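look at this one:
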Amino acid sequence: SEAYFELGSFEFDNEDYESAIEYYQKALKKDPDDQYRALLQFNLGEAFYIQNNYESAIEHFKKVEDYDPSLDVEYRTNIH
Protein backbone atom coordinates (compact mmCIF):
# COMPACT_ATOMS: atom_id res chain seq x y z
CA SER A 1 0.00 0.00 0.00
CA GLU A 2 2.99 2.29 0.48
CA ALA A 3 3.70 2.36 -3.26
CA TYR A 4 0.11 3.38 -3.99
CA PHE A 5 0.33 6.04 -1.30
CA GLU A 6 3.50 7.46 -2.83
CA LEU A 7 1.98 7.44 -6.32
CA GLY A 8 -1.13 9.14 -4.97
CA SER A 9 0.96 11.80 -3.27
CA PHE A 10 2.94 12.37 -6.47
CA GLU A 11 -0.27 12.83 -8.46
CA PHE A 12 -1.72 15.08 -5.74
CA ASP A 13 1.38 17.29 -5.83
CA ASN A 14 1.01 17.49 -9.61
CA GLU A 15 -2.65 18.50 -9.19
CA ASP A 16 -3.98 15.33 -10.84
CA TYR A 17 -6.53 14.75 -8.11
CA GLU A 18 -8.50 12.06 -9.93
CA SER A 19 -5.39 9.88 -10.21
CA ALA A 20 -4.44 10.66 -6.62
CA ILE A 21 -7.87 9.50 -5.46
CA GLU A 22 -7.53 6.26 -7.42
CA TYR A 23 -4.13 5.49 -5.89
CA TYR A 24 -5.24 6.36 -2.36
CA GLN A 25 -8.27 4.10 -2.76
CA LYS A 26 -6.04 1.26 -3.99
CA ALA A 27 -3.81 1.76 -0.94
CA LEU A 28 -6.86 1.45 1.33
CA LYS A 29 -7.73 -1.88 -0.28
CA LYS A 30 -4.34 -3.25 0.87
CA ASP A 31 -5.63 -3.13 4.48
CA PRO A 32 -3.12 -0.74 6.08
CA ASP A 33 -2.90 -0.20 9.83
CA ASP A 34 -5.24 2.33 11.44
CA GLN A 35 -2.82 5.27 11.53
CA TYR A 36 -1.95 4.81 7.85
CA ARG A 37 -5.64 4.31 7.01
CA ALA A 38 -6.40 7.63 8.76
CA LEU A 39 -3.76 9.39 6.68
CA LEU A 40 -5.20 7.92 3.48
CA GLN A 41 -8.70 9.02 4.47
CA PHE A 42 -7.38 12.50 5.22
CA ASN A 43 -5.64 12.72 1.84
CA LEU A 44 -8.77 11.51 0.07
CA GLY A 45 -10.74 14.18 1.88
CA GLU A 46 -8.28 16.84 0.76
CA ALA A 47 -8.40 15.68 -2.87
CA PHE A 48 -12.19 15.69 -2.92
CA TYR A 49 -12.27 19.08 -1.16
CA ILE A 50 -10.00 20.65 -3.78
CA GLN A 51 -12.34 19.33 -6.46
CA ASN A 52 -15.27 21.03 -4.68
CA ASN A 53 -16.79 17.63 -3.93
CA TYR A 54 -17.57 18.62 -0.36
CA GLU A 55 -19.90 15.74 0.41
CA SER A 56 -17.22 13.14 -0.36
CA ALA A 57 -14.59 15.25 1.39
CA ILE A 58 -16.60 15.36 4.61
CA GLU A 59 -17.31 11.64 4.36
CA HIS A 60 -13.58 10.87 4.26
CA PHE A 61 -12.64 13.46 6.88
CA LYS A 62 -15.16 11.88 9.27
CA LYS A 63 -13.50 8.48 8.77
CA VAL A 64 -10.17 9.92 9.93
CA GLU A 65 -11.54 10.14 13.47
CA ASP A 66 -12.41 6.43 13.44
CA TYR A 67 -8.82 5.39 12.79
CA ASP A 68 -6.72 8.08 14.46
CA PRO A 69 -8.52 10.56 16.75
CA SER A 70 -5.31 12.61 17.11
CA LEU A 71 -5.81 13.82 13.52
CA ASP A 72 -9.31 15.06 14.37
CA VAL A 73 -8.26 18.63 15.18
CA GLU A 74 -6.16 18.90 12.04
CA TYR A 75 -8.89 17.73 9.67
CA ARG A 76 -11.52 19.94 11.28
CA THR A 77 -9.41 23.01 10.55
CA ASN A 78 -9.46 22.08 6.88
CA ILE A 79 -13.24 21.85 6.54
CA HIS A 80 -14.12 25.09 8.37
User: Anything to note?
Assistant: The two ends are 30 Å apart (CA to CA). The chain has a mean pLDDT of 88. The chain has one domain: 2-79. The helical segments are 2-13, 17-29, 34-50, 54-67, 72-79.
